[in-house]
Amino acid sequence: MEIFNYMETYDYEQLVFCHDKTSGLKAIIAIHDTTLGPALGGTRMWTYKTEEEAVEDALRLAKGMTYKNAAAGLNLGGGKTVIIGDPKTEKNEEMFRAFGRYIQGLSGRYITAEDVGTTVQDMDLIYQETNFVTGISSTSGASGNPSPITAYGVYRGMKAAAKEGFGTDDLNGRTVAVQGVGNVAYNLCRYLHEEGANLIVTDINKEAVARARDEFGARVVEPDEIYDVDCDIYAPCALGATLNDDTIPRIKAKVIAGAANNQLKDSSHGETLHKKGVIYTPDYVLNAGGVINVADELNGYNKDRAMKKVETIYDNVSQVFEISRRDNIPTNEAADRLAEERIERMRHSRSQFLQSEKHILKNRI
Ligand SMILES: NC(=O)C1=CN([C@@H]2O[C@H](COP(=O)(O)OP(=O)(O)OC[C@H]3O[C@@H](n4cnc5c(N)ncnc54)[C@H](O)[C@@H]3O)[C@@H](O)[C@H]2O)C=CC1
Ligand SMILES: CC(C)CC(=O)C(=O)O
């Protein structure tokens, strides 16, 4: 990968490589755009096959956060970290403390939180070194694990998508196929089960599927089978790029609505789904509940206020469908337009001079 070429094409601001020999930390912080505010996005720990794959993931996820935060109406930019390593066997206290010190070094340009492979305990370790971390548990005004709130937002947005696809947002009796039943999807399945939906689930983790089967009566299928099952709604809740040339022709669902980041392998797959008549719910509009929740921590966490904002996901998703229908464009393009327009409006208004502590005029006073 030609890194600067890639950064120029998609307009990235900064890429930071962090290394700590003692703890084994190898982290990549990607900051995409800070027009709206400091970049907020989680830290993913994963066993990448190559360093290039890790860099690419950090860059793609950071850009997704710019769009997610903008579409959710947050005054935050987009960034993300990946830590290379196995979250089950390679974590240690010093690693997250060392990482916290790197974040502190960015002086607030980047604020982190949980993502796949990291936990509230990891964020608490980071918090020992820096204030620029959210999703912590160790102080009053902390918001803790964002996954259940992400799940609630996905559930609400899925109802808006059902309304678009089936004319009603009632999920009672609908069949939902869920790929990956981890932290977010387990909670999503609970909401769906409570509303009377039938669940088909898969995961590479046998314990995760057993829990969904035992608690929610879910039918369990093998990981590759999930694309072929008969269902009304398909919910990708594992990792990215699972909507691609191989899988889209196999999917029978009328509606796609899931928690995973970067579900489309590339934006052309949004067009493919649009032409196929499938209602694709743009991932970053749907799964913004977690970031909305942790962002509230920056004001001293208030759960009622955070949940009120998470409820807006239903309307945000509906608005995306409205633009898509009105302009006959794929839903992913409609969502991008919504986010980009907000960033551009703010860029314009911020270009006007405002006196502050740091401006040159301060020297004259
Ligand atoms: N945790 C949160 O608050 C948020 C999470 N997301 C995204 O949602 C997705 C899920 O996140 P979490 O639930 O936190 O992660 P998680 O790691 O708890 O769950 C992911 C699950 O997917 C399974 N999985 C991985 N590869 C698979 C495959 N090929 N087939 C079937 N299952 C597979 C894993 O075994 C795991 O159980 C991720 O893409 C994440 O970036 C997005 C916004 C917020
Ligand atoms: C997990 C969230 C708190 C932030 C994030 O990184 C995301 O929404 O993908």
Layout of SSEs?
Blueprint: H1 3-9, E1 14-20, E2 25-33, E3 39-40, E4 43-46, H2 51-71, E5 77-84, H3 93-105, E6 110-111, H4 120-127, H5 147-166, E7 175-179, H6 183-195, E8 198-202, H7 206-216, E9 219-220, E10 233-236, E11 255-256, H8 268-276, E12 279-280, H9 283-286, H10 289-296, H11 303-327, H12 331-350
Parallel strand pairs: 3-5, 3-6, 4-5, 7-8, 7-10, 8-9, 10-11, 11-12
Antiparallel strand pairs: 1-2, 2-5
The structure holds 1,4-dihydronicotinamide adenine dinucleotide and 2-OXO-4-methylpentanoic acid.
2-OXO-4-methylpentanoic acid (COI) is lined by residues 41-42, 68, 80, 113-115, 135, 146, 261, 287, 290-291, 294.
Q: What is the β-strand count?
A: 12
Q: Secondary-structure element sequence?
A: HEEEEHEHEHHEHEHEEEHEHHHH
> What structural class do helix, strand and pairing data support?
alpha/beta
| CATH topology label of the largest domain | Rossmann fold
What is the CATH level 1 assignment of the largest domain? Alpha Beta
Whole-number average pLDDT?
A: 96
User: Spans with pLDDT under 50 lasting ≥5 residues?
Assistant: none
Chemical compounds bound to the protein: 1,4-dihydronicotinamide adenine dinucleotide, 2-OXO-4-methylpentanoic acid
Provide the domain count. 2
Report, as a whole number of angstroms, the end-to-end distance.
49 Å
Helix content: 40-55%
CATH architecture label of the largest domain = 3-Layer(aba) Sandwich
Instruction: Please state the overall shape, judged from the principal axes of the Cα atoms.
Output: globular
